Amino acid sequence: xxxxxxxxxxxxAAAHLFDERGYVGTxxxxxxxxxxxxxxAIYFHYSSKENLALAIVQEHxxxxxxxxxRYRTAEFPALERLVALSFDVARAFRDDxxxxxxxxxxxxxxxxxxxxxxxFVGWLETVTALLxxxxxxxxxxxxxxxxxxxxxxxxxFFGLHTVSDALEGRRQIEEGLHDLxxxxxxxxxxxxxxxxxxxxxxxxxxRMRRAEPPAEDGTQGGPKGGPKGGPKGEGKAPRKRKxxxxxxxxxxxxxxxxxxSAGKGKSALKSDGRRGALAAVPPVRRRDGVGS
Length: 292
Fold this sequence. Notes:
By secondary structure, the chain is mainly α. It contains 11 helices and no strands. Helix 5 (64-73) runs antiparallel to helix 6, helix 6 (78-95) crosses helix 11 (194-211) and helix 9 runs antiparallel to helix 10. The radius of gyration is 20 Å and the shape is elongated.
C-alpha cells in the first residue's frame, strides 16, 4: 500500500512538471527536486523517464470509463447526457494536472521512446452511440448521421481545448464550451432551443455530481474525485515550481532528443502553442450490449 501511495505521489509530482515544461524540458533531477525524493527512489518505482511518462498517459486514459459509464446509464435524454458529459470532461482537463500532463505528453509523443495508447477512437464511439440514442428519441434533425456528426463534435471539442489552453490556460473553457454548444445544437436539433437544453443539461450534471460519493481525500469533482495531494507520511504535496524561461511553453518535433539520460534536461523546440488537448478512452458498451 505504501509503495502504491509513493508511486502516485511521484507520478503527480512529475505531472506538474510535464504539464508546465513538456517532456524534453523535464529531467529526472527536476522531478527529484519537485517531489523531495532522490533520483534513485524515482528509478525504483519507474525505471526510466519514458516509463514515467507512459504511466501518466495511461492514467489519463483510465480516468474516463467510469465517468462515461455514469452518463451512458443516466435516466435523462441522450443529447442532454452528451452535453453534460462534455462539461465534466472540460472541467477535468482544466483542473486535473494528470489529465493535462497526459494530454501534453501524447502531443509530444515523437520525443518519447515508448508506444503510447491511441487517442480519440473511444471518444468517437461514445459520442456516436449517444447520438444514435438521440436519434431514436427523435432529438436529431433529419439527415444528421450520428457517426459523421460525432467526428465533427470531437474535432470541435478538442479544438476548443487547444485554443482555450493557448489563449488563457483553459480558465474560461466552460464559457467557451457553452458558446460552442449554442452553435452545434442549432445544427443537431430538429426544433432548436439550445439555451434551454444547455440549462437542463448543466442542471442534470450538477445533480449527478452531488450524488457522487466523495473521494478518499474527501473531495468531489473530476473523473476520480479531483486531484489528490501528497500521501500521508510521504512528505508534502508537490510544490508549484516557477516556470523557467527555458522550459515555459515548449513543444517538440521529430528528431528532438528524447531525454533518456536521467537528470539531464533537454532544451525544447519553440512552437506556436503550449500543448494540445488530446485524450482517449477505451470503447464502452452500449446499453443494448453492442460495443467493441
